[in-house]
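[Discussion] Sanity-checking designs against the backbone

I'm trying to build intuition for which residues belong where. Below is a structure token string of 269 positions. I'd appreciate it if someone posts a full sequence so I can compare it with mine line by line.
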């Protein structure tokens, strides 16, 4: 178990995407226009009305000083109105709305918070990436834990991408020292693939040593968190960018499931 990143994009057990983002924007702060006392402006940039387009009017919720205010509230009721003056859209078809109080609201600087769903291109939650692989909150309220294949993938990438040791330089992965080297002169794609294969083989050996010790102490390593085989490692120059190397690897666990690893690295040409 680990609390770090879930680096897998596809869940190996059900082949579904991991961490797809719902693009929910939570408790964005808004202020009320001090001329008409009705139109809301994004507090972070009061030139704007809504920060982002609304994806589904039913999901819009508003709070004033922590108290939820429904659309039909007799005093603080509000409506969504098309904001046709907004021009900075990601796609020309994106439609912006603004939230407008039905009656003037003359509270002195009230804390207005709005939650809503937006589209991927505007999503702050996933930084428009579409997926969340950072800390996620489980239904219980605590952080979700990364286990089994997801943990193995995380550990493998950590081993490859971050492991350096001045005292045992042969027992870690030199990949970080490759960044920025000239491809074809100081470095080849085969060097990268070999470094990744060596690192994964070392990780496999360490896991097997750990497993033999842990068994005698009554503990057991999860077979889904252990490398059984390294199926392949490839490193290829990206077709659209000669400074990007696409690295992919496939490892199998002791349960027989496959765990894909992939990342890109930049080199000089
Ligand atoms: Zn998102």
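Best answer:
Here's mine. Compare freely.
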């Amino acid at each position: 178990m680990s609390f770090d990143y879930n680096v897998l994009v596809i869940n190996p057990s059900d082949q579904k995407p991991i961490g797809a983002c719902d693009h929910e924007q939570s408790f964005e702060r808004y202020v009320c226009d001090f001329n008409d006392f009705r139109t809301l402006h994004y507090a972070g940039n009061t030139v704007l009305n809504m920060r982002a387009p609304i994806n589904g009017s039913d999901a819009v919720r508003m709070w004033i000083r922590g108290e939820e205010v429904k659309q039909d509230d007799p005093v603080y009721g509000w409506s969504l109105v098309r904001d046709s003056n907004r021009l900075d859209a990601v796609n020309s078809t994106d439609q912006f709305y603004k939230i407008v109080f039905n009656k003037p609201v003359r509270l002195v600087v009230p804390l207005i918070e709005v939650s809503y769903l937006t589209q991927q291109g505007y999503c702050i939650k996933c930084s428009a990436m579409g997926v969340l692989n950072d800390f996620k909150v489980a239904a219980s309220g605590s952080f979700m834990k990364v286990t089994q294949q997801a943990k193995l993938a995380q550990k493998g990438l950590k081993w490859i991408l971050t492991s350096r040791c001045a005292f045992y330089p042969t027992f870690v992965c030199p990949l970080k020292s490759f960044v920025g080297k000239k491809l074809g002169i100081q470095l080849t794609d085969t060097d990268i693939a070999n470094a990744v294969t060596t690192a994964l083989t070392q990780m496999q050996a360490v896991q097997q040593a750990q497993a033999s010790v842990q068994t005698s102490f009554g503990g057991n390593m999860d077979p889904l968190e252990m490398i059984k085989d390294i199926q392949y490692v490839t490193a290829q120059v990206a077709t659209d960018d000669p400074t990007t190397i696409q690295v992919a690897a496939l490892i199998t666990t002791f349960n027989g499931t496959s765990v894909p690893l992939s990342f890109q690295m930049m080199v000089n040409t």
